[in-house]
């Protein structure tokens, strides 16, 4: 879907900051909890989220080395490590010439580069869903303004659902045949999560 870069910047910053607000509620005991991302505990999910922020920030700065996407250790203060990654990526998305830049995203493709609009779209929908992941893991509510949900739903509907989602390292699992009472439930179902996690197991 097409969206003005400045609008995308605002939406992306909203979901990214929401993810930080939720992460700030994590206690050391929470880090071993399972998450809707079945391959990860909360510690693993948080490390992935921080790493992706650094990867996208490096891409915004013109870097293409896959090393920027290598899993980041959380260290002795996981929340502060995550906060630093949020600050880095939000600052990387600020420059006025961002729309003119090409993003190398080697975790997505090593053969093509992406527009800033595409890159911010990927980041936006990823952290909309990861905010839900963290909230579900912690048993906390998460709410977004309708404009965020409207954009998230359009992005989620535009992402192909096929065999590519079962490949190792796929960003999202196959869509789940379930919806809930909110647009956020529909978004996460389209992107491979059960809205009622952990009560219902998503289909393979």
From TrEMBL:
Question: Can you give the residue ranges of the Mycothiol-dependent maleylpyruvate isomerase metal-binding domain?
Answer: 16-135
Q: By its UniProt entry, which InterPro entries does this protein fall under? A: CHP03086 (IPR017520), DinB/YfiT-like (IPR034660), Maleyloyr_isom (IPR017517), MDMPI_metal-binding (IPR024344)
Q: Which residues form the signal peptide?
A: none
User: What stretches pass through the bilayer?
Assistant: none
Q: Which SUPFAM superfamilies match?
A: DinB/YfiT-like putative metalloenzymes (SSF109854)
Gene3D superfamilies per record: dinb family like domain
Q: Can you name this protein?
A: TIGR03086 family protein
* Source organism of this protein record: Amycolatopsis oliviviridis
